[in-house]
Task: inverse folding
């Protein structure tokens, strides 16, 4: 099984959502699952063909709708972590 963990862009604010993705990757790999992490704004749909499951973190990121509409027929998991866009200002 191959899983893609798709996070928000890794900006100057590193927070619990990025730590959760990192730890999720670590523990899934202990179970023998292949895991990649990306923070890309968008990926071409064909690049998603290699993954059985796509796990999106932080649902309030503006571009998540664009991500989802390019994944018809994919198994999608959400971790609806709230991150205030003004956090850290």
Result:
């Amino acid at each position: 099984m191959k899983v893609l963990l798709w996070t928000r862009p890794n900006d100057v604010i590193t927070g619990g959502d990025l730590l959760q993705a990192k730890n999720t990757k670590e523990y899934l790999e202990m179970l023998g699952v292949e895991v990649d992490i990306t923070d890309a704004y968008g990926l071409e749909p064909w690049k998603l063909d290699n993954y059985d499951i796509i796990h999106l973190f932080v649902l309030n990121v503006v571009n998540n709708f664009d991500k989802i509409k390019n994944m018809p027929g994919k198994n999608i998991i959400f971790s609806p972590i709230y991150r205030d866009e003004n956090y850290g200002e």
User: Anything to note?
Assistant: The domain at 2-79 is CATH 3.40.50 (Rossmann fold). Residues 45 and 70 are 6 Å apart (CA to CA). The first strand starts at residue 2 and ends at 6. The mean pLDDT is 79.
